[in-house]
Amino acid sequence: MMRELGVTIPAIADRYGLKGGRLVPVLVFAVLMTVPLWGSPYVIGVFTTIGLYGMIALGLVLLTGLAGQVSLGQAVFYGIGAYTSALLSVRLGVPPCLALVFAAAASGLVAAPLGRAILRLRGIIVAGVTLTVNLGFFYLAMSASELTGGATGLYLIPRFEYPSGMSYSSFVFYLVWALVIVCLVLTSHLVRSRIGRALKALNVLAGGSEDTAQVVGIDVMHFKTGAYVVAAVFAGMAGAVYAHRMTVIEPHTFSAQTSVLVAIMVIVGGVTSPWGAILGAGLIVGITELFREVAPVILGGATGAYELVAYGVVLVVCLLFLPEGLFSLPARLRRRRGD
Fold it and tell me: For the chain, what is the radius of gyration of the CA atoms?
């Protein structure tokens, strides 16, 4: 019937700018939106976690893949968003949806001066400094027990208000993926915009040069700090949703290990690809769940060490055989068929 009308899937893809490899991710997203209709609460929770990590990873694609700044401190802003939203709701009675907005703003406000200070440095030292900041944030959250609850955590965080005909897990799932889509659209737009071209020009990892960019009139510090702030806002939103989803938060969730895990997601998925960030988050969260839910039955006992080994193996394999990330695999296969 569609062929008789002259309508085919490639024609639809061409009409809406979905040529090449873009149609498949869109179709995957369409199927993903049906998960609450057939998935168990566990399955819905796993995909919600993928979305939360995907938001943080998208910010790191901007910061590292586009601006060339290696950061190992995104969990700081994840934590700032979570604690800000939780404290506003618990102590001041601010509605969770409004608290989420304040949490994203708070993460951006903290990131602006912090980014200007850190990003004056260059090279791998930026990664070391951001990791140190993350460690400092973790110990601050542990010690400021009157504010954060310390190691015990902050609990009795109110949930989002949600429609009576929908489960809370389904509501949070749709909220998270709606935010992921907003972040994905914004990131993809920035990559193709004048701002994206300016960031690429100063990206040393992609063959650019900060000195050359400055000579041609690009305000290097302005653009680097802007990318840092946007990445922080993405992480802050994810943290706020996490707090109201779990209704309890504690410092270990926002440790340096989380920052490293997000960096692995971005590298594995494709450090320059917004879609790759989502793919990398899905793979790493999938591995984590596999070892936590399935492996104990087979191996017996705790499997934390096996998780770390699995992350390392996946990272090494990707760096050796897919240095541009998993999202580059279809293009590589098409080129090979063309050869």
Answer: 21
Among 292, 270, 294, CA closest to 281: 270
Q: Distance between CA 34 and CA 243 in Å, rounded?
A: 24
Q: Is 21-338 a CATH 1.10.3470 domain?
A: yes
Cα separation, 71 vs 154, in Å, equals 27
Where along the chain do its domains lie?
21-338
Residue-wise pLDDT tens digits, 89-140: 999 999 999 999 999 999 999 999 999 999 998 878 999 999 999 999 999 9
